[in-house]
Specification:
By secondary structure, the chain is an alpha/beta fold. The protein has 2 domains: 182 residues, Vaccinia Virus protein VP39 (Rossmann fold, 3-Layer(aba) Sandwich); 140 residues, no CATH class. The protein has a 7-stranded mixed β-sheet with strand order 7-2-1-8-11-13-12, with helices on one face. A two-stranded antiparallel ribbon has the order 3-4. Helix 2 links the parallel strand 1 and strand 2. Helix 3 crosses helix 9, helix 8 runs antiparallel to helix 9 and helix 13 runs parallel beside helix 14. The chain is globular. It starts with 10 loop residues before the first helix and ends with a strand. About 2% of the residues have low confidence. The structure holds S-adenosylmethionine (SAM). The site of S-adenosylmethionine has 22 residues, from helix 2 and strand 2.
Length: 387
Amino acid sequence: MRYIGNKTKLLRFIASYLDDLDLHGGRALDAFAGTTAVARLLKARGFAVDTCDIMSLSYVFQRAYVVADEYPRFRGLAEDSDLRAAKLTPEFRSHVESRFGGQGDLFGGIANLQPLEETLVYLDSYLEPRSSFIDVNFAASESPAEGQRMYFSRRNAQQIDAIRHKLQDWRAADLVTDDEFFILLAALLEAADSVANTAGVYAAFVKAWQSNAVKPLRLSVPDLVVGTGLSCVAHRGDVVDLVGDLGHLDLLYLDPPYNTRQYSAYYHVPELIAEGWFGAKLPTLRGKTGLIKDSHKKSQWSTRAGCGPALEQLLEAVDATHVLLSYNNEGIIPEREIDRCFRHYGVASTYRRVGKEYKRYRADRDSEARQYSGDHVTEYLYYVRLR
Ligand SMILES: C[S@@+](CC[C@H](N)C(=O)[O-])C[C@H]1O[C@@H](n2cnc3c(N)ncnc32)[C@H](O)[C@@H]1O
């Protein structure tokens, strides 16, 4: 998913630094997991990973991409008569093959992808579209009426609604396991983001239909790290509240927000899809973009006054051997504050920092270009061994 601060493009840099530090295996915490790009890397390197984030969308990714350790088999879905009937139609198998190339088995048979491929095709191509919360509040017609929020085409919004309801129903009826539910929900979040009519964040929609937004929503098979046998745990909430209860960690990886934009306001639409709208009361939306009340998700790491003290609180509370922090040269925690904290809580002789120039994330450039000097930022990795 397009996500500010996503480290996918920096994984080689992070991996080679972990090599230099000779860090493989043990227990790690990815404290600001976001899309889980780094947590997945850590799991692939043999770490049992705990993950944490304040956003529910991240919790979905954590469960799907880090906690789940095998591709779903969907044994319970044999009970779903509509799915069974769709699978019996003559064109269903060729539909699945034309979408996924009939890969079937991955890694010499360790992962059988067929049940997942079939379920994804059923959800995005055989399930009847349905008008529910996303269609009513975040969709617009081809020629939008005044006041319509142009985040999704009507057709895609209705498919998102239908899939989200179906996942809820399957879970309530115990037809899918927790891992299976979160893998499908993660696939929905990724697919919805790829057809969202935004420049990358949901703080605004684009006022004309972009080419990605008029394509039909299609679910993809995620690339999971499977068969490790590692015990990984996902957490939702403020990491400062969590860290004291976690016990000893070999590695604490930190990738906090680096500016004053609150993630909850920039990703409120996928956040709603992640959380659903199935409580007693529908979520109340406000304003042009349909924001939700989310004061519990405001992060002190995204405030100039709060970010330095938050770093200090976290290092004070954690029991870890190694700390690695990703941050860039435009971040709001002053460099001297990071320096002071790392020297204070760590063994000063082990403290170091490496940097790499990096092309700016597109949505950053679009919205805040005037504040920035150019198209590149320097991404740093700060390391210290704690005392
Ligand atoms: C720079 S992003 C992390 C990106 C992630 N490493 C990736 O590759 O996708 C920062 C993340 O910190 C989360 N966050 C902000 N305040 C937090 C807090 N107090 N506790 C836990 N997570 C927090 C945000 O929701 C956001 O997902």
